[in-house]
Amino acid sequence: MFSGALKTLSLTLFELAHMNTAIKINQVSKRYRIGGLHPGYMTFREMLGGVVTAPFRKLKSGNGAQTLWALSDINLEIGQGELLGIIGHNGAGKSTLLKILSRVTKPTTGEVKLFGRVGSLLEVGTGFHPDLTGRENIFLSGAILGMRRAEIERKFDEIVAFSELEKFIETSVKWYSSGMYVRLAFSVAAHLEPEILMMDEVLAVGDAAFQQKCLNKMHEIRQQGRTILFVSHDMAAITRLCKRVVLLEKGRVTSDGEPRNVVKYYLSSSLKTGASREWSNPLDAPGDEVVRLRSVRVRDEAGQTIPVVDIRKPLGIELTYEVLDEGHALVPVIEFFNEDGTEIFSTHDTSAEWRRQARPCATYTSTVWIPGNLLAEGSLVGHVSIMSHFPATVLHAHERNAVAFQVVDSPAGDSARGDYIGPMPGVIRPLLQWSTEINEPEELRPKSNVQSPTSASDS
Amino acid sequence: MDSETSKAATPGLPQTTRAGAVTRVASDLKESTEHRPERHALIKSEAAGVQLNLGELWRYRELLYFLTLRDIKVRYKQTLMGVAWVIIQPLTTVLIFTLVFNRFVRLDTGLLPYPLFALSGLLLWLFFANAVTNSTHSLVSNANLITKVYFPRMFIPAASVGAGLVDLSVAFLLLIALCFYYGVALTLQILLLPVFVLMMALLALGVGLLAAAVTVKYRDLRHALPFIIQLWMFASPVIYPTSIVPPRWKWLVIINPVAGIIEGFRAAITGRPFAWVHISVSLVITLVVLAAAVYVFRRFEDTFADVV
């Protein structure tokens, strides 16, 4: 009896310690055997052959050639009500992690503790059968995703209403358009009401209006204090929705924390565009028969190509282009985008020197200077164009993501952030003039003569 | 920004300061899972061994119903004759065997007219054969489910057996009709009929689970299965009576659980005495096969999603 009481006590202690934890991942690793001796499945003959080579196989697998660690030593604690985003390249282990957490597959080593009912949406329409009607699929898919029959019956009308498919609910889903299919599938999933919801890229489908509906639903689920794990390649959505993001690279957590920082880190490590670009072959250089781009680069005042720019220093974007057909008044244009895909501004060459001037055939270099203390920190990409406006506007050359660079802020205290070291929102970060004056003492004196209740009690 | 990146690179998790207490009581999680089965779950690694976890099967029981319903509904979709196939299949088979064993070769089936004798065996046999075949293929053809969502995988082959049971009850009407046609009077023994159907279902489930679990990894069984099934039929008293089996092969009939079940099924319809010893042996073998199958299935289950 005493031990029973002790057990109850320790249970309570345990639950107390984990009161706010939804998922605890302990040293989880997952190994897959790939290719060679261990295909996904083998035939009996191969297995028989394997018996003969078995003594040697150990030696072979010892070099690790046939195994792939999809996840290695993952440790994460996810709190209740957290909306955690998981990002990473294809093959980084995101889906494997979700599969382990949703119990589809087991980890090779390590363990996971889940505190709450788990609902996983690793694909759209889990359990849907094309030959069954919408109604039948709601029940089937609902049951497979872990709902009770009574629960589905109770929510049936709500699910149908959410999907906006009232008219087609008795039709086989194989006659549905892909949009209708996704709508029905997500509607079922959205009414799952798990304490922990895991989603893998399901929002990548459906029209814009329905996507908005899904995002609203996610917010609603979140507001109810449920935990959401969300794998996506949509960085804007991740930054907008999540309070915390985990970056997986080659099966390891390489970054974990504030979405902006993790996304920034991810993009900077994966950005293909660099700070300078050259088109050595004029035939595949961007442009037409009038003008072709030859090179683009980010430079500092000293003329050095710089991929990382100090927020306080001006930076130049230098374009080199070759005019092949004379007589056109050309205008170089650069558009700047930040990592959310937001266009920050665009700039057109309006200098008097070549404005409305027909250019002779030659190679030109144009540089535009962006003053220091204007851009916000982060990754920026520039789209470069060359156009002419006479007789009508023609876009001669257009290169998206022609050049990319990182703007980094300084902790020195002389940038727009001053001594503040936290995250600063906003697409630009101008260093502006502030002025503060001490108010005239004469104006204050009459007020200070009036006795305030505090000073009265003090004396 | 560099300082921020490095900050982000170190997992910024709130570390539990009471870590000692946590590890000490963490071993009690197993108990807590039993107390509140729906709320907590502990995912162990592959190395952790086999857990039968039968309680989980009970919690998910409604899913078995829905999967069976799906298998039934889907089977005859987009067919011209629909459910009529449930009757057509045994009917044509009986016609063929009647032609061979009643017209070309005369088989002594005692008091029972041969078509009735053959049908009573074939109904149960076709149920068994179809259930085993369908459950063998079931895991592979439901790979999309297995790799995307968790539920007791045992229900996939079980649903194939369940759907076969529904077919059997429809086809049973044919047997009743034939009984009336031949004027065979039904006795109270027919009340034991469900017992033999259940035994056959359990045996089909056992064999089906085993075959399904093996097929996930080794696809050979898919090719070998039709031969095995055919061989098994000829080794069982489906279309011939046990009486014609030579004495030195009698032991084969005894250890073949299908034989005992079919004999019992026939006796229940015709009102002849049951061979209780034979039936008991069949029952024991059936239960052993089923228990072994459940164990093997649970053992392989964890890797299904990785190899299917």
Describe this structure in a few short sentences:
Chain A folds into two domains: 18-56 and 65-269, P-loop containing nucleotide triphosphate hydrolases (Rossmann fold), CATH 3.40.50.300; 276-408, abc- transporter (atp binding component) like domain (Coagulation Factor XIII, Chain A, domain 1, Distorted Sandwich), CATH 2.70.50. In chain A, helix 4 packs across helix 6.
> Oligomer, anyone?
heterodimer
Number of strands of chain A: 18
CATH topology of the largest domain in chain A: Rossmann fold
Q: How would you sum up the global shape of chain B?
A: globular
Amino- and carboxy-terminal Cα gap of chain B = 46 Å
Count of distinct structural domains of chain A: 2
What helical percentage do the residues of chain A reach?
25-40%
Indicate the proportion of strand residues of chain B. Answer: under 5%
Uncertain segments of chain A are 36-40, 50-65, 452-459
Radius of gyration of chain A, taken over Cα atoms and rounded to an integer in Å: 30 Å
What are the secondary-structure elements of chain A, in order, as H or E?
Answer: HEHEEHEEHHHEHEHEEHEEEEEEEEEHH
Helix/strand structural class of chain B:
mainly alpha
Give the N-terminus to C-terminus distance of chain A in angstroms: 66 Å
Low-confidence stretches of chain B: 1-38
Helix and strand succession of chain B? HHHEHHHHHHHHHHHH
Profile the largest sheet of chain A: 6 strands, mixed
